[in-house]
Amino acid sequence: MPLYLVQLQEYAAAREPRLFTYQIRPGDTLYSIALEFGTDIETLAGLNNIGNPHLIFAGETIEVLTLVGSVHRVAEGETVEKIAELYGVEAEAILEANRLSGDRLLPRGERIIVPGGRLSRSGTVVFSWPLQGRLTSGYGWRNGKFHYGIDIGAPHGTPFYAAADGRVSKAQYWGSYGLMVELDHGYGWSSRYGHASKLAVTPGQRVSSGQVIGYIGVTGNTTGPHLHFEILKDGQKINPQSQLP
Question: Helices in 18-164 by DSSP H: which ranges?
Answer without folding.
Answer: 30-37, 41-47, 80-87, 91-98
